[in-house]
Write a structure and sequence with these properties.
The complex is a heterodimer. By secondary structure, chain A is mainly α. Chain A has one domain (66-227). Chain A is 72% helix and 0% strand. The longest helix of chain A has 24 residues, at 68-91. Chain A is globular, with a radius of gyration of 21 Å. Chain B is built from 20 helices and eight strands. Chain B has three domains: 21-150, Fumarate Reductase Iron-sulfur Protein, Chain B, domain 2 (Orthogonal Bundle), CATH 1.10.1060; 154-306, Glutathione S-transferase Yfyf (Class Pi), Chain A, domain 2; 312-432. By secondary structure, chain B is of the alpha/beta class. In chain B, helix 11 (211-223) links the parallel strand 1 (198-200) and strand 2. Classes of the chains: A mainly alpha, B alpha/beta. Chains A and B meet through helix 2, helix 4, helix 7 and helix 11 of A and helix 2, helix 7 and helix 15 of B.
C-alpha cells in the first residue's frame, strides 16, 4: 500500500470518522448544557421564536453600514473565500469524481476556467485574511493558536490541490493511471488534516453560526428588537 | 474594605473582603460555571476572532486601543468555559491546552469588564456570529462580584443598596423626600398608599438632582386620573445588583418592586427613565419567580407612548428640530425604539437622527455602572466626544433622551468638554407640554 492508497483508504476513513463524530459530539455537548429559559412575557406583537431566529440568521449575513469600511472589507473577503471554496470543492470535476466514489452522488462540473478563477480568488482571500490577522492590532490582540492552525489547514488543501492540476480536468479523469500520485496523496492528506481539525477549532463555525445567531435572534425578537 | 490599587498609569483594580486569592478564584470559577448554559456555550464556541466587535465598541472607537475589543474583555471567562464546560474540557485540562484563569488575570480584567464595558450590546449587532457579548460580560460580572473584585465605588453602592434598598437614600427617608419634592414642584406624590393601580418607582438621581422627573411623572399620572403611589417597600428601580453582578441583591431589589406592587394590588410597576432598571425588571424579574411576574412592568417611555396613543394624554406640539439619544437598555436591548419616536412625533419635533441611532446607536458611555465608577471618568470623556460630534452633525436644536443615567453621563461629558448643550428628558418635555 503506497501513500496514495493509504490516503484514499484507511486515513480517509479515519479522518471522516473523526470529523463526523467530533462535530456531532461538539454540537450535542453544547446543546446539552443547562437551558436557561426566558420566562419574561414577550413584547406584544413579537414574532414567534423561530421567526426571530430565522430573521437573525439571515440578518447576520451582511453588516450594517454604520460599522464602516472595515466591516465591509472583512465581510466581503469572507464571502469571496466561502463562495470560492464551495465552487472549488463542489464544482471541480475531479472533486465530484472523488465524492462520487465515496457517496455515489454526482452532479455536473463547472468549466475549468471557472475553477481556476475560483481557486485564485479563494487563495487571495485567504492570504488577505492572513495579512489582516498579522498586521491588524485588534486581530493581533485576539488571535490564538486556533486561528493560525485553522488558517493553515484551510490553506494547505488549496495549494496542494493547485499543485496537482496539470491540464484539463477531462484529461485527468480519462487517464488510465493517476497522474502525480505523490502530490495527490499529499493533497488528500491535507484535506484529511482539515477534516480532523474541523471539530476542534473555529472551523466549526460552519455549523455553529446558525445556532449562535438563532439564540440571539430569539432573545431579541422576544423583546421586540429587530437586530 | 481594602482597595489595593495598581500603581502607575495602568488602571487600578479594587478588591473587597479578606478572602485568600485561591478563595477568590474558586468563587469566580464556581459562579462562571453556574452561568455556562446553552446560549453561553454556543456564543463562546462560535467566535471566529474576526475582530469586528471592536468596530462597534465606543471604548475602542474612542481610544483605538485593541484591548478594548469586546471579545477580548471576556478572555478569563472564555478560558474558564473551555476548561470547565466546553465539549472537550477534559482534553483541554489534561493537555493544558488553555491556561487556567488566575486571580491576577481577574484583577487585570476588572477594568475591561467594569470600566470599559457598559453592557450596551452594540457589538452584538455587528458580530457575524450574533454573539451577545453584553450578556456574557454580565455573566462574567457575577463571578467577579463573588470573587470580591469589582470597582470599590460600585461595591460601596452595593453595600448601601443592601442596607437601604437603594444606593441613594434609606427607605425611611422616602416620605420626607417626596414631601419636599411635592412642595418644591407643587404636586402631590402619594407615598405608601395601601392600595393603588400603579406602583411608581424612581431612579436614584430622581431622589436627588433630577427630582423634577418625579414631579413630572406625578403631573402626568394625575392628568390621566391614575390611582398610583410610591412606596417604601420598593421605590428604587435602578438595581445596582444587576450592574455589579450581585445576583442576590438583584433578586432582592427586583422582588421589592414586584412584591410591593402585588401587596398593594397594583397591576403595573412603572419604571422611571432608567435603562438598566428596564433590563433588570422587565426582562429578568421572571427568573426570580420561575414564571412571568404577576404584574406588568413598563418603562416610562412605553407608558407615555401608550397614554398619548390611546388619547388619555394630550400634549402640545413644541415644533422645531430635535435629535434623540437611544438608551441602549431601552432601545437596542429593550425594543422601545419606535415608542420613543412616536412620543417625539406627538411633541411635533422634526427628528434629525444621529449618524448612529436606533439599535446601532452609540452608548452614552456610562451604562452598566460606568457612570458611577469615577475611575472610568477619563475613558467616559473620550467616548463623549463621539456622541458630541454626532449631535452637532445633526444641527438639531434640542438633544433629548429617555434615560436618567444617560442624561447624567452626557451632562458630565458636556461639562468636561465645555459643551453648551443641554440633554433633555423626554418625560420632562411631555410633562411641560401637557395640553389642556
Amino acid at each position: 500500500m503506497d501513500l496514495l492508497e493509504l490516503a484514499r483508504g484507511p486515513l480517509l476513513t479515519l479522518a471522516l470518522a473523526i470529523f463526523a463524530a467530533g462535530t456531532l459530539w461538539r454540537l450535542v455537548a453544547v446543546l446539552r448544557l443547562p437551558r436557561m429559559p426566558d420566562l419574561s412575557p414577550a413584547r406584544s406583537g413579537a414574532p414567534r421564536p423561530l421567526a426571530g431566529a430565522a430573521r437573525a440568521i439571515v440578518r447576520g449575513m451582511w453588516p450594517r453600514r454604520e460599522f464602516g469600511q472595515a466591516a465591509m472589507v472583512t465581510t466581503f473577503n469572507g464571502y469571496v473565500f466561502h463562495i470560492g471554496l464551495a465552487l472549488v470543492f463542489l464544482g471541480y470535476a475531479p472533486h465530484i469524481a472523488f465524492i462520487r466514489r465515496i457517496t455515489g452522488l454526482s452532479w455536473p462540473a463547472l468549466p475549468d476556467p471557472v475553477m481556476v478563477l475560483a481557486a485564485g480568488a479563494t487563495l487571495i482571500s485567504l492570504l488577505l485574511a492572513l495579512w489582516m490577522r498579522i498586521t491588524d492590532p485588534v486581530l493581533q490582540q485576539i488571535s490564538g493558536a486556533d486561528d493560525w492552525i485553522s488558517w493553515t489547514v484551510t490553506f494547505l488543501p488549496l495549494v496542494t490541490g493547485m499543485a496537482v492540476v496539470a491540464g484539463p480536468s477531462a484529461a485527468l479523469l480519462s487517464s488510465d493511471h493517476v497522474v502525480f500520485r505523490g502530490p495527490l496523496a499529499v493533497h488528500l492528506l491535507t484535506l484529511e488534516l482539515l477534516l480532523v481539525w474541523f471539530p476542534f477549532g473555529k472551523l466549526m463555525h460552519a455549523v455553529l453560526f446558525a445556532f449562535s445567531r438563532a439564540a440571539t435572534g430569539m432573545r431579541f425578537s422576544h423583546r421586540g428588537v429587530e437586530l | 474594605m481594602n482597595a489595593p490599587a495598581a500603581k502607575g498609569s495602568t488602571p487600578a483594580f479594587d478588591q473587597q473582603g479578606t478572602q485568600s486569592d485561591s478563595a477568590r478564584l474558586d468563587a469566580a470559577m464556581t459562579s462562571f460555571v453556574s452561568d455556562f448554559g446553552i446560549t453561553v456555550g454556543l456564543h463562546l464556541e462560535s467566535c471566529v476572532r474576526c475582530g469586528l466587535c471592536a468596530q462597534a465598541c465606543h471604548f475602542y472607537l474612542a481610544t483605538g486601543e485593541p484591548r478594548y475589543t469586546p471579545i477580548h474583555k471576556l478572555d478569563p471567562f472564555r478560558r474558564a468555559y473551555q476548561r470547565q464546560a466546553s465539549p472537550y474540557a477534559p482534553l483541554v485540562r489534561a493537555l493544558g491546552l488553555v491556561r487556567a484563569p488566575t486571580v491576577a488575570d481577574l484583577q487585570q480584567w476588572q477594568e475591561l469588564i467594569y470600566d470599559a464595558c457598559t453592557m450596551c450590546g452594540r457589538c452584538t449587532t455587528v458580530c457575524p456570529m450574533g454573539i451577545d457579548i453584553a450578556e456574557l460580560i454580565r455573566d462574567a460580572r457575577h463571578g467577579m462580584f463573588k470573587a470580591g473584585l469589582i470597582p470599590e465605588r460600585l461595591a460601596l453602592m452595593d453595600r448601601t443598596a443592601r442596607q437601604w434598598g437603594s444606593p441613594a437614600t434609606p427607605a425611611e427617608d422616602l416620605p420626607d423626600i417626596l414631601a419636599e419634592v411635592s412642595a418644591e414642584h407643587g404636586v402631590t406624590i402619594p407615598c405608601d398608599l395601601a392600595a393603588a393601580d400603579i406602583l411608581v418607582t424612581a431612579a436614584p438621581a430622581e431622589l436627588g438632582d433630577h427630582t423634577k422627573a418625579l414631579a413630572d411623572a406625578a403631573r402626568i399620572l394625575d392628568r390621566i386620573g391614575a390611582k398610583w403611589t410610591m412606596h417604601q417597600g420598593g421605590f428604587d428601580a435602578s438595581n445596582v445588583g444587576f450592574n455589579n453582578g450581585d445576583l442576590e441583591l438583584q433578586e432582592r431589589l427586583t422582588r421589592a418592586l414586584i412584591d410591593t406592587a402585588v401587596r398593594i394590588g397594583a397591576q403595573t410597576v412603572l419604571l422611571p427613565e432608567c435603562g438598566h432598571a428596564y433590563g433588570a425588571a422587565r426582562w429578568e424579574a421572571a427568573r426570580w419567580y420561575g414564571q412571568a411576574p404577576p404584574v406588568r412592568v413598563i418603562h416610562m417611555t412605553e407608558f407615555l407612548d401608550e397614554v398619548i396613543a390611546d388619547g388619555r394624554l394630550a400634549v402640545r406640539r413644541i415644533g422645531g428640530t430635535a435629535t434623540f439619544h437611544d438608551p441602549c437598555q431601552i432601545v437596542r436591548r429593550g425594543g422601545l425604539e419606535a415608542a420613543a419616536r412616536r412620543v417625539l412625533a406627538a411633541l411635533g419635533f422634526e427628528l434629525r437622527e444621529l449618524a448612529a441611532h436606533g439599535v446601532t446607536g452609540l452608548c452614552c458611555g456610562g451604562g452598566g455602572g460606568v457612570v458611577s465608577n469615577q475611575r472610568a471618568a477619563p475613558l467616559r470623556q473620550k467616548v463623549f466626544e463621539i456622541k458630541k460630534a454626532q449631535v452637532e452633525a445633526t444641527g438639531a436644536e434640542r438633544f433629548i433622551t429617555s434615560c436618567g443615567q444617560c442624561r447624567i453621563t452626557l451632562e458630565m461629558g458636556a461639562k468636561h468638554a465645555h459643551w453648551n448643550r443641554k440633554t433633555e428628558s423626554l418625560l420632562e418635555l411631555v410633562a411641560d407640554n401637557l395640553a389642556d
